[in-house]
């Protein structure tokens, strides 16, 4: 006999156990073979409540339905939610509870998705026993989970065999189980128990959770009503206190003529004591009803605890112990219901990824915890603060402080000036803010947060560590970018893209040495600047498709020039970091080389210098693979990034392109001229060819030649030209 229900002696046949050695039937439903194998391996030979386990496997919800239609009864179903469809698991639960009308079988959800928690309504409607992440289910936890489930199944089966008074118990339990808080649940237990026994409401319910020493009164009627929320040590009747403590110590019920002190223990080890005063002696029938009711109460206490855990997960951030996104939105919506004007601030920790990568995730987590505590301290204890994404905090401030917002933002910035001292590390921190005002910038929580996010992006783009208040123009700008993204998706199939080629010249021989392929977008009679659409293509991922098209067209054109003029001309194509890190890039490159038949030596890929700062080791591997194919590589915008001789030695590149900003200023500035000279010398030291871009004056070309630069391009030599003009230039030279 376990201690999770009332204990009486002698036992009657209502609590006879099912055949002692009969295995518990467990159904494993998961589409991953290894989950089945790991579960069986972990529980092989284990006993649950002195009985072995027998497993049946189903690898889809459909297969599980076929198995469940058979006569075999299952004590527990260990179930994955997402299988052949996103809702396959929930549909199976509906099938079990509604179609099969099976309510004794316990259901435990196992999820492989971090942060997943089933909705409260789903747990309530389908009587889900528990949910666990697969990563947290050790052998011990599996056994504990199955023990709880099997015990509940056994108790429910016993109740199903006990018909006398069952309707009264079910009706009473249904009402108390609808409560999701321990206090209201406990009050419901007393109401139903008193109604069940037809005695006066003169009772008290005490709870001791997790084996704590403190026993608290959480529900009471009659003279005990004033004790709710207090420890039993405050009860004046010390004899009663002693009796309660004795029941908790012995885990045995105490029943006399006019007082019953009943002990319950939930499957998760929470202990409950009910003190019930009666004007008559309890009959055997009363005791039988109490016994059955206690089963529901002990299981129900676990359900209420589960509800509270789920609600805590739903609205609170596990890391910082503050609000999470859902909790913040709920709080904001409550304020909006009262139509109180307010401000929402969205705060982003600048360079947080660098903290995570450089100092480790543990320091990163501690930084987040410290940041929430710091903001709470600076902005006030009553200020609602929620972590709504990895390193973003949302804050609600009263509209009264709007006029003093500059001073407030300045004080927050100054308060972070010294950074955080965390585990012997001095962690530099700063915040960038986006601000939106209710009701001016949104009439619901989602639109307000969205607009604060738009303002935050603008602040991060303009100046980190600052703040920006949302304006109407922001939304229009965002909508225009979205419109451009949608239109850009169809630019290739609508034949709207064109490629022009800007000639590159050898400064020593004054001859055409190559061309750079530059894409142009002709849309609805307008020429859209690459400065506008290329960043949008990169952010949206469309650059992968567009970039592949540009590369193939340029390669085809190089082959066409060779066939038409007999002259082989190097063609340079810009490649973005989004293309390079795409897993399919090298395969795409090989396919283009094969389809076009271009000599790889006549193809040059240009990358920007700043690209190398993303993940230099990964970039080096990709560039080396490109170079191994015979393709040359040029670094564009050289001098604007992190140039050094060691850096140049490590990179698998062939050519450096001096940025136009240096070229345009070197004629008027000796300092800039010396910088260009230094770049050329650095490049030559590691056997790289130097090409200058943006040459617009003859004097600039002559000066570059005198400094030892190898090649040049720019308007002085030629603007970007259609392919047929380049053909004519080759034929004329």
Summarize, please:
It contains 25 helices and 27 strands. With 733 residues, the protein is an alpha/beta fold.
What is the general shape? Answer: elongated
Strand % is 15-25%
- Return residue spans where pLDDT drops below 50 for at least 5 consecutive residues: 1-20, 161-180
The main sheet orders its strands as 19-20-22-23-24-25-26-27
Number of helices: 25
Arithmetic mean pLDDT: 82
Estimated helix fraction: 40-55%
Say how many strands there are: 27
Q: How would you classify the quaternary structure?
A: single chain
In angstroms, what is the radius of gyration?
Answer: 37 Å
Distance between the termini: 101 Å
> Mind describing the biggest β-sheet?
8 strands, mixed, barrel
Structural class designation: alpha/beta
Description:
- The protein is α/β, with parallel strands linked by helices.
- It is elongated.
- It has an 8-stranded mixed barrel with strand order 19-20-22-23-24-25-26-27, surrounded by 6 helices.
- The protein is built from 25 helices and 27 strands.
- Residues 1-20 and 161-180 have low confidence and may be disordered.
